[in-house]
UniProtKB/TrEMBL annotation:
Keyword Cytoplasm among record annotations: yes
Keyword DNA repair attributed: yes
Main location, first listed in the record: cytoplasm
Family, per entry: Belongs to the uracil-DNA glycosylase (UDG) superfamily. UNG family.
GO biological process: base-excision repair, AP site formation via deaminated base removal
E.C. numbers: 3.2.2.27
Organism: Thermosporothrix hazakensis
Domain Uracil-DNA glycosylase-like: 50-210
Name of the protein in its database record: Uracil-DNA glycosylase
Residues the record marks as active site: D65 (proton acceptor)
Catalytic activity: Hydrolyzes single-stranded DNA or mismatched double-stranded DNA and polynucleotides, releasing free uracil
Underlying gene: ung
Cellular component, GO annotation: cytoplasm
GO MF term list: uracil DNA N-glycosylase activity
Keywords per UniProt: Cytoplasm, DNA damage, DNA repair, Hydrolase
Length: 225
């Protein structure tokens, strides 16, 4: 497995890469790639870390599993490659952005501009077999990404943790809620968006917290691809 990440992350996670569970995980993913199509491509697996070095993390947005259809996943939660139609959860995020901050809904679902502004867009599981959702869960990725959450929790300044849905909210146990900001609601999936995601105004809340902490606000607008 190709691990091309910024030096700040490499130092923090060096011990993790040497642990037996991670070696086993690497072997599992390599074997899966030999037998099946696996998303995202190898060079994109660690894009969340690559685009948002540790020192730049102001927000952590947690997803669950990469998109499993062709040409979608590229290593950032909720984001798809340029030119790919935004999936339903992302469209619901766009609708809430429009209602919350007047966002103009683009045809593009490529969210790298958010990552470049300090949002760590982390999935709990970083790979998936094509067309087989959750096929790589419980093979070690969760242990690795829990450690990433712990490292972000250790940052001396406040970070905003965005936890949508019950799966993400289980990670509250890893976060010092007395020091950090927590934004949680239902997941933007079509199955649950109307149960508390719509109307929750997470995007303006993120900018309010950033402003209060003296950090740059996020420009949410995504250009058309």
């Amino acid at each position: 497995m190709q691990i091309d990440i910024p030096e700040s992350w490499r130092q923090l996670l060096a011990d993790e890469f040497e642990k037996p569970y991670f070696k086993k995980l690497e072997q599992f993913v390599d074997e899966e790639r030999q037998k099946h199509t696996v998303f995202p491509p190898e060079e994109d697996v660690f894009n969340a870390l690559r685009l948002t070095p540790y020192e730049k993390v102001n927000v952590l947005l947690l997803g669950q599993d990469p998109y499993h259809d062709n040409n979608q996943a590229h290593g950032l939660c909720f984001s798809v490659r340029p030119g790919i139609k935004p999936p339903p959860s992302l469209m619901n995020m766009y609708k809430e952005l429009h209602a919350d901050v007047g966002f103009r809904i683009p045809k593009c679902g490529y969210l790298a501009p958010w990552a470049e502004q300090g949002i760590l867009m982390l999935n709990a599981v970083l790979t998936v077999r094509a067309h087989s959702p959750n096929s790589h869960k419980n093979h070690g990725w969760e242990k690795f990404t829990d450690e990433i959450i712990r490292k972000v929790n250790e940052k001396p300044e406040p970070v905003i943790f965005v936890l949508w849905g019950s799966y993400a909210q289980k990670k509250l146990a890893l976060i010092d809620t007395s020091r950090h900001h927590i934004i949680q609601s239902a997941h933007p999936s079509p199955l649950s968006a109307r149960q508390g995601f719509f109307g929750s105004r997470p995007f303006s809340k993120i900018n309010e917290y950033l402003r209060a902490d003296g950090k740059p606000e996020i420009n949410w607008q995504i250009p058309d691809c």
